[in-house]
Amino acid sequence: MGDAGSQFLGFTAGVMVILLTQKSGTVLSPAMPLLLLGLPLIDTFLVMGQRIAERRSPFRPDRNHVHHKLLELGCDHYEAVVIIYSVQALLVTLAYVLRFDSDLLVFSCFIAALGR
User: Fold this and answer.
1) Computed over its alpha carbons, how large is the radius of gyration of the chain?
2) C-alpha angle with apex 20: 17 to 21, nearest 5 degrees?
3) pLDDT at 77
4) Which DSSP symbol is given to 109?
5) pLDDT confidence of residue 69
6) In angstroms, rounded to a whole number, what is the distance separating the alpha carbons of residues 109 and 12?
7) Digits of tens for pLDDT over the chain (116 positions)?
8) 3-state helix, strand, coil in the chain (%, to 5)
9) Which pLDDT does position 116 carry in this prediction?
10) 43 close to 65: Cβ distance less than 8 angstroms
11) What's the start-to-end Cα distance of the chain, in Å?
């Protein structure tokens, strides 16, 4: 896809969840974007946290992302993609189920997913 395509998709997804949850008068939890964008956020937080803990620049590339780890575990590309899509689908389903619940509950579910 390249940088331009992934940046466009990321920007579009970010704008969509903001429009969905941050309107005045909405009853949806403002913390819901954490689950809707769950796996990319979790992967980013964990990889950047690991780099900082190792006293490396958080912006330097490496092979610590979730798809690289799945490939190292023996998954082929197709299997890794199916696993990633399945986990993200689970998080989106969780966001749908918790759409009217408290921010604390939604945030707690995100933190639980972050802990893997």
Assistant:
1) 16
2) 90
3) 93
4) H
5) 94
6) 24
7) 677 888 898 899 889 888 887 777 777 788 888 888 888 888 988 899 999 999 999 988 889 999 999 999 999 999 999 999 999 999 999 988 988 888 899 889 888 887 75
8) 70, 0, 30
9) 57
10) yes
11) 27
Tokens for 108, please give them.
């707690």
Of the candidates 41, 33, 23, the one whose C-alpha atom is nearest the C-alpha of residue 99 is 33
Helices (H) and strands (E) in the chain, counts: 6, 0
- Residue 39, token pair as written in the block: 């796996």
**82, two tokens:** 């199916």
**Contact of 80 with 17, CB cutoff 8 Å:** no
For the chain, what is the domain count? Answer: 1
Say which amino acid occupies 100: F
| Token pair 């690289």 in the structure block, residue | 68
CA 73 to chain centre: 21
Comparing CA positions, the residue from 70, 116, 64 lying closest to residue 90 is 116
Longest CA–CA span in the chain (Å) reads 48
Residue 36 backbone zone (phi > 0: left; psi -120 to 50: alpha; other: beta) = alpha
Domain assignment of residue 78, given as a range: 2-114
